[in-house]
Amino acid sequence: MYTLAFMRASERAYRTLREDIVEWRLLPGTVLAEVEQSERLGLSRTPLREALGRLSAEGLTQTARGRGVVVTDISLEDVDELFELREILECRAAALAAQRGEASVFAALHAELRDAPLLLGAADPTRHAYYALVGRLDEAIDAAIANSYLAQAMRSLRVHLVRVRRLAADDDGRLTAAAAEHAAIAEAIVAGNPRLAEAATTVHLHRSLSHIKATHTPH
After folding, report:
1. CA separation (Å) from 154 to 80, 123, 173?
2. What class has domain 4-71?
3. Is the pTM here over 0.70, yes or no?
């Protein structure tokens, strides 16, 4: 039976490694040697193995013959597959949010998204404030759809989508356009129009994928 200390150590290792992978501090192909990672994280190898197992289940690591556990790669082929799934999940979620969501919540987000270009530029080169705003829209949609299975599927997908951002050279022009696209999604949800919300989401996903393919920067 797991002790509380073991569970805490495993959770800490999982969260640290997950963030390092998602933020590309651990690049695709990096070998996650048990001894090295145990020393870096200050824990024993047993909770580390538990954490690596969870990352493998999420598709962030894999076992490579003769190399041990490595960070998985992500390619344009992967991106195509991710966006196929993303369209199915996110379009349906937007439609449900338009039917079930509270208009006031999305009206406030719509107003913030219209002003999102003010978050971009030299004042926030990491664009954390912008991505935090988009994250709040995602969370509001997850809450509005009242479907835990769909919400969980989208949260799992978003882990990989954060990595995908690094395949493209995000520029303020594209992010400004994306903010307007997100605002259109929020506006359709406020209007309680499922078909419009679905259409606005489709437009956003199409433009996002086109941008990634046009500006793909190999790592």
Report:
1. 16, 31, 26
2. mainly alpha
3. yes
